[in-house]
Amino acid sequence: MTTIEHWIGGAFTRGASTRTGSVFNPATGEAQKQVLLAEESDVDAAVSAAAKAFETWGDSSLSQRSKVMFRLRELLVEHEDEMAKLISSEHGKVVEDARGEIIRGREVVEYACGIADVLKGSYSDQVSRGVDVFNFRQPLGVCAGITPFNFPIMVPMWMHPIAIATGNTFILKPSERDPSVSNLIAELYAEAGLPDGVFNVVHGDKTAVDAILDHPDIAAVSFVGSTPIAKYVHEKASATGKRVQALGGAKNHAIVLPDADLEFAANHLTAAAFGSAGQRCMAISVGVAVGDAGDALVEVLKRKAEEVKVGPGDDPASEMGPVVTAAAKDRVTGAVAKGEAQGAQVIVDGRDLTVPGHEGGFFVGPSLLDHVTVDMDAYQEEIFGPVLSVARAADIDEAIALINANPYGNGTAIFTSSGAAARRFQREVKVGMIGVNVPIPVPMSYYSFGGWKDSLIGDSPIHGPEGVRFYTRAKTVTTRWPEVKQSVDAAFHFPTSS
Ligand code: NAD
């Protein structure tokens, strides 16, 4: 069985690792590869390689950095098929969906191609007579990224292209569930001309994460994953003086007003709830049917949920693949059972689905729960699977209040034909990313991605302008070049302009 190794200093290595984890094919349920699980000394080796590489990369020209990004972008296009199939085989999502995350990740590389423009500083002439002020931003040093299983290429790409283009070196600790594509990215960076040690991959579990969080020579940590781990990472890395960005879990609501086109709304809700088997941080997991919209909406949702074609990710006919692990399957079926026991109506039940020829796979079909209320576990927990709960609200006030009372605030959407209602919603809702008749409003790479409340711990959204700010720090320089002899007496009062 293949063993997936670390990539440190420009080469694959086993380092000091002896422990391994199984990487499954979720469509068959079989372990297909082993991944090394790093020890503290492996993280140490990666930090040493990255720190050494920073001595030259931190001083590289903007054009050298953007040339690497342009070349990487082309290689990502060339290898798209191979990467999409690889992701599908370890994550389970359908190949076309994997292609989608490659494209969205590549857009961050495209943003990083223009780093020379983005990094331009500012200049103020003559702030005082003969005095000018300018500022510019410099890289931090060695940065690290810890990422979740659900977007094995896109989420790391929210981090490393920006970190590297701004002059940092980087250590990626990808999810141990679907680690292979990160090694392929490392090879593509090398082919694109990135010097050894600038991008490193250390595979592992909590041991590797803790070694990163505690390491004194890592300047910044980016984390994306579940909220409890985001809180842990934020607290622990902050305690050792690092910059931290920590994005957490979600429970995303979509409001459907009675004036919405129900067929259009239900179509989008179905795709947003069940695409990637609901394993997206921007998946819609709660539909909030307002007033008269309720029964009619549930009727259309039922029909659409029953039509979803579930099968292995490499079958072009499949619209939805399996969930990532057997434990994830148990969690999803358990959530539906708890919902039923607590009084929700199970309109579509995906618990007993089997896919012929793939009986051992981690398949679970779409489930639709109606009359879900806030006290139910199905509402309170992030199920992170193909379960759409429908809650009812009397009016838009009640619907907005429901969303605002939820501890998460990642994404939300409204379906309506009223501009006034949409405008009110976007102003009043306490959520970071909002869609108007758009179910999954993931911002483009030249904006930044980030939720509110328990969906983002700390204050730093990811990629785009916020990413550039996160991976750099500013210097402000005040200059004077005297042309004629001026008074040589230094003033002892606090300087003011003259
Ligand atoms: P996870 O929190 O279990 O794992 C994320 C990373 O943390 C992995 O690299 C994992 O190895 C590591 N990790 C896990 N347990 C740890 C521990 N006890 N100590 C230290 N490190 C640990 O998340 P996941 O299951 O891989 O991904 C799904 C979660 O990620 C969902 O909650 C989803 O909402 C969230 N997510 C959020 C966003 C966002 O942008 N806000 C994006 C994608 C996924």
UniProtKB/TrEMBL annotation:
It is an enzyme of class 1 (oxidoreductase). Keywords: NAD, Oxidoreductase. Gene3D superfamilies: Aldehyde Dehydrogenase, Chain A, domain 1, Aldehyde Dehydrogenase, Chain A, domain 2. Pfam families: Aldedh (PF00171). Its EC number is 1.2.1.27. The keyword Oxidoreductase applies. InterPro entries: Ald_DH/histidinol_DH, Ald_DH_C, Ald_DH_CS_CYS, Ald_DH_N, Aldehyde_DH_dom, MeMal-semiAld_DH. Residues 15-477 form the Aldehyde dehydrogenase domain. The keyword Repeat does not apply. GO terms for biological process: L-valine catabolic process; thymine catabolic process. GO terms for molecular function: methylmalonate-semialdehyde dehydrogenase (acylating, NAD) activity. This is methylmalonate-semialdehyde dehydrogenase (CoA acylating). It comes from Glycomyces lechevalierae.
